[in-house]
Amino acid sequence: MQETSLGRILSVLRARSWLVLLLAVPVVLAALWFARSQPPMYQSQIVLTFSPGPAGTADNAFVRLVPRYLLTATAATSLRTAEAAAGLPSGALGNAVTAENPTGSLQLELTATTGDAGRSETAVAALADSVLSAADADPLVDAQVIVGPTEPTDVTPIRRQVAVAAGTALSVVPGITLAFILEGLRPRIRIREDVEQLGIPVVLSTRRRELRRMVATRRGRVPDVLTSVRLQMTAGAPKHGTRAVVVTSVAPFDAASVARLAEALSRPTGGGDRSGEVPGAVADEAIALARPALLSDEAAQAAVRAHGKCLLVLSARDDVERAEECVQLLRRLDADRVGGVLVR
Fold first, then answer.
1. Lowest mean pLDDT among 61-65, 139-143, 176-180, 266-270
2. Which one of 25, 73, 159, 280 has the lowest number of neighbouring Cβ atoms within 10 Å?
3. Distances (CA, A) of 190 to 62, 176, 248, 259
4. What is the arithmetic mean of pLDDT over 125-132?
């Protein structure tokens, strides 16, 4: 398989975006359902502050005493006491309590979250009482409540938004994973480097709609972007007295692009005014023969053998293995000048 690059990754995702979106929809819907099914939750907070006790001193050693009360607030005995005070079942506060000590401060912030506003307030007050009781037993520390317990706030909308955001972010993972698995099973021609790895120089890389626009406009002459392509392909001595370029493809499904490209390359180069052309670059007007499906069409193979000059149209519909077969066939047909046109 081709070397992975940012351009190839992006081209695979663009080509298989429908798959990513298709698999993302059920994941997003599941996240929305999960978010809507979440019960209301209420949060209440208390802030305590600490100061030196009768036997303590306000120094760095005292500041280091404060964080140990984080363990007191979240200890199993403190949680069981708070659950009993709030009328909650055992274990209800296991993941519903947070205790924080801002770095270098003498404060302790306690938060309790439950499905009932009153129980959240009661539970956080009970946790604060456990901390105050522990501080009362320590002669080095005094503690007191400076804020709260605050009036419980409904945090359900935030939790639902987080659930939806997480689901949306993860929704693309299945599609992206499957897209690269499929690409690994059947690598396609995606970027210029894929064509060059086949040993074919890229003379033109364009989008399908740009090729249609290129052919539809300025019908009286070869579009400027194709003039240099034709000069490259028709340089040198003509084979069988004609400067013909065979435009072909790996398979029949690129026949429309082959026909458009051949039609544009067969136009006159510049109308009546040829002063800007390179003298001798094109001794007579070139023609381009549309012969798609080189691997399966004997007429296309015969044309390449007869004229030698060949433009191979490749697109993301072509897998690498078939493209390599086509290149090997061109070598066997003794195509003396081969260029690649990548239609993205």
1. 266-270
2. 280
3. 65, 16, 18, 21
4. 91
**337 closest CA partner among 225, 236, 259, 261:** 236
pLDDT tens digits for 243-283?
788 999 998 988 988 888 888 787 765 543 443 343 333 33
Rounded to 5 degrees, what angle do the CA atoms 277, 283, 289 make? Answer: 100
Give the separation between CA 111 and CA 125, rounded to whole angstroms: 10
3-class secondary structure, 310: strand
Which helix (H) or strand (E) is 206 found in, with range? strand 202-206
The per-residue b/e assignment along 241-251, b for 16 or more CB within 10 angstroms, e otherwise, is eebbbbbbbbb
Q: Interior CA angle at 287 toward 281 and 291, to 5°?
A: 135
- Residue 1: the pLDDT is 43
Provide the H-helix boundaries in the chain.
6-15, 17-37, 60-63, 68-74, 76-86, 117-136, 156-185, 192-196, 208-216, 224-234, 255-265, 298-307, 320-332
pTM of the model: 0.61
> Is the distance from CB of 289 to CB of 247 less than 8 angstroms?
yes
> Which residues are bridge partners to 313 per DSSP?
249, 341
pLDDT for 105 equals 77
